Amino acid sequence: MNRAEKAALQLQAVAVLRMLKETRTYEELSDVTGLPAGDLNRYVNGHVLPGTERASEVVESVGREALADELVARVEFDDEGYVDNSEVVFDQSFLDLVAPVAAETFEFESPDVVLTAATDGITLGAAMASFFDARLAYAKKSKETAVEEFIESRQRLASGIELTYYLPASAVDAGDTVLVVDDLIRSGETQELLLDIALQGDADVTGVFALIAVGDEGMDRARAITDAPVGALTTFE
Ligand SMILES: O=P(O)(O)OC[C@H]1O[C@H](OP(=O)(O)OP(=O)(O)O)[C@H](O)[C@@H]1O
């Protein structure tokens, strides 16, 4: 490991510890990592960097299970079953850790474009695009001013309301490989629209990924449309 790789690993470990510290005391963080609370305090505050061996242990310990636990700790449901996931989608550092784990868990091929839906999918989309060194594109519920050509997809929802998403036509080229991501899949209506937009753009879908699936309906709907891998970090019943 050269010096730059060592520094990158050390900083990655600090990012992991800071993320885990968000929902824990130093004592709890010590229980999770097996490292002394005093050392953890110095790492999290940036006074000292963990040595290479400790750094790689910390980074390797953050697999799917640890991130899924973290996600569950950060998500809240109200009485009607609506999800508040602000503590997840507002935390770019957390999402940056999710991207490599999602890629490995579901064996997503590296895409040309990561496609998502505004608004709440954007930060996850940015993390995934950055990880894959891909372009990010997000469809919106309104037409962007000054864009002339759009791919649009519309459907009537179960509620009877019509939902339309618009993507600037230049965002996806024919033959691009596209990974569709979103923060949440519930009915799967949004994913269906995004998959339709990819299809209209003559793109090849390489996968569908969500942080949170609520029930199976949305995931099943996506699987009925594409043969590519479809996965969520966590499923809530
Ligand atoms: O599987 P579905 O039933 O389609 O639900 C999932 C969608 O719902 C939320 O977006 P919302 O429409 O609330 O828009 P927002 O991101 O702007 O809040 C969420 O960000 C997903 O895009």
TrEMBL record:
The species is Halorubrum sodomense
| The keyword rRNA processing appears for this protein | no
Keywords, A to Z? Glycosyltransferase, Transferase
InterPro entries noted in UniProt: PRTase-like, PRTase_dom, Pur/Pyrimidine_PRTase
The name on file for this protein is Adenine phosphoribosyltransferase
Out of the domains of life, which is the source?
A: Archaea
Q: Where is the Phosphoribosyltransferase domain?
A: 92-201
Question: What's a Gene Ontology MF term here?
Answer: glycosyltransferase activity
Q: Reply yes or no: does the keyword Glycosyltransferase apply.
A: yes
Any matching Pfam family:
Pribosyltran
